From TrEMBL:
Lineage: Bacteria, Pseudomonadati, Thermodesulfobacteriota, Syntrophobacteria, Syntrophobacterales
UniProtKB keywords: Flavoprotein, Oxidoreductase
Keyword Protein transport: no
InterPro entries documented for this protein: FAD/NAD-bd_sf, FAD/NAD-binding_dom, Ferredoxin-NADP_redctase_2
The protein's name in its UniProt record: Thioredoxin reductase (NADPH)
FAD/NAD(P)-binding domain mapped to chain residues: 7-287
Length: 310
């Protein structure tokens, strides 16, 4: 069993984790990033609203960020984390490959796992018409026809947002709508076509992308895009093992202060795991703060150890 010793361990290699790695490594502490690059929701995105960079693919942005982090001195382990525990003043992390990593500080930047429909075409057309983020991708569907799948506030709010971009918006709700009266009223007064008690059977497309959704009742609706807004399940199991505080209303996101500190000393969080909005700009900003603060935490502990020895 391989054992890796590091100082700042960053879990997640998306924009938040990479920015944390760049800033922590520049503080001259040992930094290790663990996670699979292609798991980042930004990896397959098309980015047009990131300041100073008008158009770039998510994959290109991620790859450049990794190179920057490596140049700054960060090391990468392309594995998933299975468990985190605290042992004295260290954190002990177990990866899927059986590796054990010891760290003084941890930055949680693993994002959230979007709930999926699990229907044919969903995976195949991800990034080619299938999206899990209206805020991120609405701009790509100007004057087109789109469908939103879901029954709760995220789906309804997303549908209303899309009316400012798309030519037609269909809200496909597998059950009955479950939203506040205020949101229901806004939906009723909107141009959204609401299909309650309708379930998607398949997402259809061709080489260019999504062309339609097929419903279980046999209907087929021609669309250019499908937004799946079934809510988001935070990647919080690892955080819960450490006793990290979660948002009391949703229990899906990690609570942090302005320094990106959690309630557990030495544990920081950044990016989607801290909650919406799901934007690269937010993730990068939080990652910057988390990386700097984690490095400073490590340096303070170093000083304390030296004083004790002397």
């Amino acid at each position: 069993m391989r054992v890796v010793e590091t100082e700042v361990l960053i879990i997640g290699s998306g924009p938040a984790g990479l920015q944390a790695a760049i800033h922590a490594a520049r503080k001259k502490v040992r930094v290790t990033v663990v996670g699979k690059v292609h798991r980042s929701s930004a990896y397959r995105a098309h980015v047009e609203n990131y300041c100073c960079i008008p158009h770039v693919s998510g994959a290109e942005l991620i790859e450049q960020g990794r190179k920057q982090a490596e140049k700054a001195g960060a090391e990468f382990i392309d594995e998933d984390v299975l468990n985190i525990e605290r042992a004295g003043d260290r954190f002990v992390v177990l990866t899927e490959g059986g590796m054990t990593i010891h760290a003084r500080a941890i930055v949680l930047a693993m994002g959230v796992s979007r709930n999926r429909l699990g229907v044919p075409g969903e995976k195949e057309f991800l990034g080619k018409g299938v999206s899990y983020c209206v805020e991120c991708d609405a701009g790509f569907f100007r004057d087109k026809v789109v469908a939103v799948v879901g029954c709760e506030s995220a789906a309804v709010a997303g549908s209303l947002t899309l009316t400012f971009y798309a030519r037609d918006v269909f809200l496909i709700c597998p059950d009955q709508l479950n939203v506040s009266p205020e949101l229901a009223s806004r939906l009723k007064d909107s141009a959204v076509h609401v299909l309650e008690n309708s379930a998607v059977k398949e997402i259809v497309g061709d080489d260019k992308g999504v062309t339609a959704v097929r419903l279980r009742d046999g209907r087929e609706i021609a669309v250019n895009g499908v937004f799946i807004e079934l809510g988001a399940k935070g990647a919080i199991e690892l955080a819960m093992n450490l006793g990290v505080e979660l948002d009391p209303e949703t229990m899906q996101f990690v609570v942090t202060n302005k320094k990106q500190e959690t309630n557990i000393p030495g544990v920081y969080a950044a990016g989607d795991i801290c909650g919406p909005p799901w934007q690269i700009a937010k993730a990068v900003g939080e990652g910057c703060v988390a990386g700097i603060e984690a490095a400073e935490y490590v340096k303070r502990n170093r000083s304390g150890e030296k004083q004790t020895i002397d």
